[in-house]
Specification:
This protein is mainly α. It contains twelve helices and no strands.
Length: 238
């Protein structure tokens, strides 16, 4: 059982990441990207409660309420942009300069979402947009395809000096996105995709810790090394 394998580690960070991975699996594969985030949360919480009752262990107790509908919505927006970006990179490697659709969608969504930053509405979300900008700008420096695409994206830090403020939620988003794309774009994730026809079966031999990639941004790594990650922001439903 997947949850029992995660539980064996009994480490807060490992348990937290395992729960995020499980929630994404529910959202993207089991529920086929349903827009009803309340439904996703209900299934996630019900499964964890049932597991706690059956296993007689309460290690997941603190993670039942780790997500809110608002938080999921923000992460999904970021996930969509990263998905288009990574698809663009994969197509670029395999097909050369023939495909730019995914990159155009990524840029379009980015420009739409960064409007939030212009209004100074959500510093955490905007900080993660800047992380995406960093990855995009770095890749486009050496990319000769898609001349219609901008070489750099708008910067949140230019829009608002408060971008320099880093909060625990920023670390959450980075970790969540990389867990998701690890699942979507590596052989590691194929284990889940093979089970789409039987969504009620939870994979039982997953060990994501050995495959967990570091984030490309050194500023996030430095912050994560200096401060204990917590999920209080999520619990507050902000």
């Amino acid at each position: 059982h997947y949850l029992s394998n995660v539980e064996e580690k009994r480490e807060p960070q490992y348990l937290s990441n395992g729960c995020k991975f499980f929630l994404y699996w529910l959202y993207y594969d089991v529920l086929n990207r349903v827009s009803d985030y309340d439904k996703v949360l209900k299934i996630y919480e019900d499964v964890l409660r049932e597991y706690i009752e059956v296993s007689s262990n309460d290690y997941f107790k603190n993670y039942i309420k780790s997500f809110s509908e608002q938080t999921i919505e923000k992460i999904i927006k970021l996930s969509e942009m990263y998905e288009y970006f990574y698809k663009f990179k994969e197509e670029d490697k395999k097909q050369g300069c023939n495909k730019c659709d995914n990159a155009e969608k990524c840029v379009s969504l980015y420009n739409e979402n960064i409007k939030v930053c212009e209004k100074a509405k959500d510093y955490d979300f905007c900080y993660e947009l800047d992380n995406l900008k960093e990855s995009y700008d770095t890749y486009m420096k050496t990319n000769e395809c898609c001349s219609s695409l901008p070489k750099t994206l708008k910067s949140y830090s230019v829009q608002n000096p408060a971008a320099l403020i880093i909060t625990p939620f920023s670390i959450l988003l980075v970790i969540s996105l990389f867990i998701f794309f690890l699942y979507k774009f590596t052989p590691f994730g194929s284990f889940f995709r093979k089970r789409k026809k039987k969504p009620q079966i939870i994979p039982d031999n997953l060990d994501y810790a050995t495959h967990f990639p570091p984030h490309a941004s050194q500023r996030v790594n430095d912050y994560n090394n200096n401060r204990q990650y917590n999920i209080s922001y999520l619990s507050s439903g902000q």
